[in-house]
Amino acid sequence: MSEWKILLTDGLSETGKAILKSKNIAFDDKNDIEKEELLSCIADYDALIVRGRTKVTADVFEQGKKLKVVGRCGVGVDNIDLEAAKQHNVAVVNAPVATTIAVAEHAMALMLAMVREIPKADSGIKAGIWYKKEIKGAELNGKTLGVIGFGHIGSTVGSYAKAFGMKVIAYDLIASPEQIKQHGGEPVTFDELLQQADIITLHVPLTDRTKHMINAGAFTKMKKGVRIISAARGGVIDEMDLLQALESGKVASAALDVYEKEPPTDSPLVRHPNFIGTPHLGGQTKEAQQRAAVDIVNEVLAALEGEPLQWRVA
């Protein structure tokens, strides 16, 4: 049995657990553990593997005296206090490419559901209503897609959109215009994207720079009848400003997979007739979760063993 001990708090695919078992790594699977219990037991572990639910706050690092690495089984690390990790010399790693296909496909699914009004058509059929004349959808072909965040996921969405005959323009906070071109996008400024896009899809992390980057001011620069999609992170869009834009008709429709508060049970936005919502399902495919589990387990073990890391974020 290895000297290492790992805590899993948000579940892990059996493919990841199989790797740990094959290497005789001790681990405890405490799915849905509450913060109080996490704080009381974290001192026993060398590594912690989480998804998006568990908040790895400064007090977790303070109590985790043996903690050497935190692994995020997925992309976003906004639920982990990166500054506290640095202060306690704890590595933070993620699995940034494992869910790329799943999230990109989900963004496309939202896009198609939105332009063809599939949820309304489906609910009508179930209620015995034949919306044959009432629903007149739109085509993606010939439309301009604005991709905000042209990394792994955003550029993959761009490639899918091109297959539908769309023009793809892109804005990224980090990638150079040359890199955007290499991945099939036409680089534009943020304002140019807002002004030109028929549909806007967001694929950026939640940071101080991206919080509420789509707000009332941004909506004023968009085309009337623009459509908005986000399968990125809640908080990138100001949801109350989006609701006002839907009510005014500036935004024809919106489809979100992520929200500032999850679940968004008391949000008037999700009840708007031109809104489509899904419950943070972007990376939730069997295939993506298997890839993510393998990637994060291997990365966490590399951190424990002092080997080079592919996806260290802090």
TrEMBL record:
Family matches, as InterPro entries: D-isomer_2_OHA_DH_cat_dom, D-isomer_DH_CS, D-isomer_DH_CS1, D-isomer_DH_NAD-bd, NAD(P)-bd_dom_sf
Domain D-isomer specific 2-hydroxyacid dehydrogenase NAD-binding residue range list: 108-282
Family annotation (SUPFAM superfamilies): Formate/glycerate dehydrogenase catalytic domain-like (SSF52283), NAD(P)-binding Rossmann-fold domains (SSF51735)
GO molecular function, one term: oxidoreductase activity, acting on the CH-OH group of donors, NAD or NADP as acceptor
Signal peptide annotation: none
Entries under PROSITE patterns matching the protein: D_2_HYDROXYACID_DH_1, D_2_HYDROXYACID_DH_2
Domain spans labelled D-isomer specific 2-hydroxyacid dehydrogenase catalytic: 6-313
Coiled-coil region(s): none
Catalysed transformations (reactions): (R)-2-hydroxyglutarate + NAD(+) = 2-oxoglutarate + NADH + H(+)
Keyword vocabulary terms for this entry: NAD, Oxidoreductase
EC number: 1.1.1.399
Primary enzyme class: oxidoreductase
Pfam families named in the record: 2-Hacid_dh, 2-Hacid_dh_C
Family according to the record: Belongs to the D-isomer specific 2-hydroxyacid dehydrogenase family.
Function: Catalyzes the reversible oxidation of 3-phospho-D-glycerate to 3-phosphonooxypyruvate, the first step of the phosphorylated L-serine biosynthesis pathway. Also catalyzes the reversible oxidation of 2-hydroxyglutarate to 2-oxoglutarate.
Protein name: 2-oxoglutarate reductase
